[in-house]
Amino acid sequence: MARSDVQLMLDVKAGDDASFDFLLVKYRSPLVNFLYRMVRDTATAEDLAQEVFLRVYRARKQYTPSAKFTTWLFRIATNVALNSVRDNRYQKMEVSLDAPVSSEEASAPRELPAREMRIDEHLLERDRVAFIQRAIASLPEKQRAAVLLHKYEEMDYAEIAKILDCTEAALKSLLFRAYENLRLQLAPLVTQPAPQRAGERRPS
Amino acid sequence: MKCEDVSNNLIAYLDMRMDSVERREVEEHLANCAACRARAEEFRGVSNLLGEMPAIEPSFGFDARVRQRVAAEPHRTWFQWLIPQPRLALAAVLLIALTVWVERLPQTTTGTLAPNIATASSEQDFNAIKDLGVLENYDVVTKMDALSELVPANEQPTQKPEPSQTESND
Question: Mapping DSSP to helix (H, G, I), strand (E, B) and coil, where does residue A97 land?
């Protein structure tokens, strides 16, 4: 019989490192994806995911199954992601127009990390996915985390509220504000139907 | 249901995460409110766009790097294997030590407090001997009450010579 995540973590606590390996294999992909959508950089997302697994391992002796394992795991992941985003925010906002440009960069227009995108930038954006990614990245961190946990991890409101340390009512309001922001950011695409891929089921 | 209530529950409605009663209330409101209906459609469009985001896969060496970092973490020593819960072991040792100390407490108390009691009683004896001359003086003793009414109690020793002066005058 397959062991639950909580049981696996209790086994890790008891000194069974093989159980940690099960958790690693099971959650590496959701974690890397969540962190990638939070920080918009693959290498950083992987570094942060490693950090999350390491924190889980270090905290094994203090682990108590008071909540779902995913709640605990994504709470750690959200904290790691929010810290990373906050640490890098000012660094990324500081782009010097006088800085020397490499030959590769010279051929492409420089992308300024503006929080608000202009409509002409919207229209020029070739890659639809990159456009959606940018819209998600433009959300305030907590709204972004709420949307990602809700949409991609398909967690219920109670679990997301625990992860983000807020009430369910506050979470509903947070999600509403996030969708309002996304509605404005994605306005040029909202009216355009996406090309339907074969065998793809449209989300409800 | 008001527009504000519908707004806060719109995503739950679109996700089908509402019970049938709430759902019917939202639907009734949407049927009569064009603004909320338009917003609901746009939110549905946003949700569909978010669904277009492809998932990425961790790189080939991801697991190996995590395992390597985990392996580099300090592990338990042989001593820690003998005592899996060091805090519990420490608490147990402290409890035993406290019990032993409490068991021995009455004997220790007699031993340590006895000198103090002896010191106190010897001080009392010394004070009594010191004032013995005064107490043996019959006149002083007989006039003690009258004197204590005249002067403060802490100045009594300075008044000691007075009775003798009175006596000599007599």
Answer: coil
